[in-house]
């Protein structure tokens, strides 16, 4: 297929390092083109965060071209034809023209080097990423109508989507990710192929699936991306707890659509993120993902009463366990797993505050149990209100405003976020005359509960109360 060549709309936006490198390759008798995302982002008016290049040079030839020019070089991707390098504060990658494919049972792509730019572009995932800018001449090569599709906000593949997804099934996840990041619509034939081939995503490593999921959740339109995963059946393979939220509603509609509710909570949580200097800078994956999965315990806990009323008793506890299990399967790090599952576990804690009120002790426990998740929990709890009943929404919002004010007042008075017993382990052992062991742990918990229930007592009163407790408990 012949390539369409036009000038880019803003040549000044091209990084001078790219032009410099293009001249070096041309002087050495090789082709070099800026390719993929950086070219797409030029048309979107976005800064290119990565500089990716493709060339007819082999990895060895690339190393010779950049010798003495690059400040650092790394060859970790050499087997895939990629040489990474740094020039000043700019990092970039140069990859030999290539094609990659999976066999029926493989989790890793098989790499074959290509011989032309046009062939390399044909093997790329989507037309909007199958554009290249030849360097240093600055001709745009767009053989598959990427510019047109970008303007139309549609996602298509250069060739048949079935062939593209067979070559690399992760591209189906990328389609959903781009739907979220770029707010584009997936072409009908692409969606059909994703649906037909959804099971093939199972051969892709959990780590690669996880990385695409994170990018999707952190995109501009995460609801759109998640809905595409669910609608095509991909979520049933990689995140089955989410499509399971599509519970059948009873004939009297006594509970809301849990799946649609969860998507709305996801959207609202993203809207409550702070700026870059705030407590929860956008985009925050942990908050957004907790919002999406906060109700995944409901299908397992749904019960119908004699009057037909629906309950989901302890769904937050069940949901936290399901969330942690799924995130471990997707190879998330332990800190992220703990944060998200803790948010899911605590998301119901607030309810009832507005009706019954909480003692200072209950407020302290809320803060202690949330720990570093407190600011995210504030936002998740607020986002979880999706009722159309304006009075209910106003009542819950006012109640949470009151809770946050009380937390701020107590925190200022007591440094609440660092609540500790007034005697540490060494002091407990000295007062009670006991060695390290279970007794010290029991005494510590007693003093912590005392601190949470009654606030600061002072070390002398804490010691007196500890001795009184020990006289009865030991």
UniProtKB/TrEMBL annotation:
GO terms for molecular function: CCA tRNA nucleotidyltransferase activity; metal ion binding; nucleotide binding; tRNA binding. Pfam families: HD, PolyA_pol, PolyA_pol_RNAbd. GO terms for biological process: tRNA processing. SMART domains: HDc. This is CCA tRNA nucleotidyltransferase. Its EC number is 2.7.7.72. Its cofactor is Mg(2+). Keywords: Magnesium, Metal-binding, Nucleotide-binding, Nucleotidyltransferase, Transferase, tRNA processing. The keyword Nucleotidyltransferase applies. Residues 254-415 form the HD/PDEase domain. The keyword Hydrolase does not apply.
